[in-house]
Amino acid sequence: MKFMDPWSSQGIDEADYERLISEFGIERIDDVIRQNLKENRFIRRKIIFGHRSLQNIFKAIEQNKPWAVMSGIKPSGPFHLGTLTTALEIVEFQKMGAKAYYCIADIESWEDNGIPYQESEKNAVDNLADILALGLDYNPEKAYIWRQSKEPIVKDVCFKVGRLVTQNMLNAIYGEKPFGLYLAALIQVGDITLPQIKDGSQPVIVPVGIDQDPHIRLTRDLTRRYYKEFFLPGATYHKLLAGLDGTEKMSKRNPNSYFTFNEPLESIEKKIKGAFTGGRRNRKEQQELGGQPQICMIYKILMYHFEPDDEKLAQEFEACVKGELMCGDHKRTCIERVIKFIKEHREKKEKLIDKAREILGVD
Ligand code: SF4
Fold this sequence. Notes:
The chain is of the alpha/beta class and 363 residues long. It contains 17 helices and seven strands. Strands 1-2-7-6-3-4-5 form a seven-stranded mixed beta sheet, sandwiched between helices. It starts with 13 loop residues before the first helix and ends with a helix. Iron/sulfur cluster (SF4) binds next to helix 14 and helix 16.
């Protein structure tokens, strides 16, 4: 049996998305939802392709009732394009009226990567300043932010639900793993349940990469059995960005597959220059045969994050397929946009570092 592994660096190919939808009962984002959420470019562009219980959110909005968005980050390093996707999804849902619950998963960072709390604390401040710079409103009425290691609620849930969890259940969901990762998974059950424990029963949506679905399934199962008065947590699922160099997934083990927001600009530029494209061997072939934007990382990173205009994106796709757009020129456009974004982001972020320290209670 093939497990979906939230801690692995293995990528997921296109065919797998279909399998995951049918095997695990994920609902598709249909045209009605797409219309309802047309402001959200991840939904419009089918990057978010599936969900669970999104209808509860629509109902809450319609009835003017409270609802929440919950997600987090493992503070094992600086922000990159993968963490950017989830962060922007949280900000987007908060703008739609959700209270945002943001977790710094430092227990997971220890269990999965062996990073001690003192060290992940630095990353946590940096990561939080990133999401604040991206627009997360930290006003306590609109957001609650916590570190797993300092939050008694999530530890309580871990022990409470622990008596319902057997080795067989965990094996069936995650395969055989070190015990610490199972514990981290139960702590995540606490993270996802926290909004309803803290602020009462309400619909919660958890925007995640599809690789995190095992945590959602475990939490829904335990909520059904232990917290009968709560809504089953919902989720939206986005497709994972492949590695810049064309490898399956952005991975720390392969530094050319991604860049971080803290990297020197020259290094970012170099990595984008070296990115895998769907271009042909030379200009002549590109003009004759056209490129393949559907497999191109330059096209993908523009589509995910750096081309806000749908029409322009469609024009670029077409120009590539017709052989009118050359990879060198397109890479230059992409580099300019990324560097501009990173520069502006750093300026905003610098002003928010102290706020991030204050929120996390770090001296
Ligand atoms: S022209 Fe652009 S989209 Fe087309 S293959 Fe080259 S880099 Fe990719």
